[in-house]
What does this fold into?
Amino acid sequence: MAVQQRSIQMPGGTIRYWTDTDAGEGTPWLAFLPGLTADHRLFDRQMEHFSGKANCLVWDPPAHGDSRPFALDFTMDGFAHMLHDVLADAGATKPVLVGQSMGGYVSQAFIDLYPGEAAGFISVDSAPLKRKYYPTWEVKFLRHTKGMYQAIPMSLLKPWGSWGAAETEYGRELMRAFMDSYTKQEYVDLAAFGYRLLADAIEAPGRVYDIDCPTLLLCGEKDHAGDVRPFNRKWTKGEGIPLVWVPGAGHNSNSDKPEFVNRQIEEFVRQIIAA
It folds into this structure.
């Protein structure tokens, strides 16, 4: 696999991303977008599987992994604009956005801001960005998580985070590796910022959008992260988007059950090509 690391300078810092273009010109692009506090390693099994089959891109989102230091002063729309710049820098046109958790939210913001530019969207253990799906108390809670995280020792946060995010040993080890890369304060600041970012995006005035590309919802059967499973049930019912449950998987279902998720992605891309 000929993976190349690349970087692009943004006002808040440097974003690093990786591409594999062995599949060649004219082949679909897959853009893998990790969730909050995770980094590009979350999609290692997807990058390996799709090498030579599709052109692939994965990034460390701003303030994550190797995209640090980075100022925590952007909005969800700013997040999506940065993704757009990264895709343009890589030459990734009409990508299928594969967004896990926070990566799914930024994908929706991207689709809202850049209609027609995504060939497809696969949500992995994420949730809708539309305000109508959220009770007021939940949005308010998202704004007040910092004190909770601050009060919990890192020695407890690590096992709590890894067991809460994944069901397999590989998935849990990966989550522990992500958490080990941050100091306690970095982790607390990033997590709290991410939840507040999401709350602001949900309540952004005038955010009324429809996803304008083929879409698939993937959600782990054992996803215990907040109300992700109920949100996916509401999402598929409210928008008519297909929902596939990933058997035996937790919140990071693409690392828990990579073979199953990879098959779903392959079939989704085949249907887009055939359309």
Q: What stands out?
A: The chain has a mean pLDDT of 95. The beta strands are 3-10, 13-20, 29-33, 55-59, 96-100, 120-124, 215-220, 243-246.
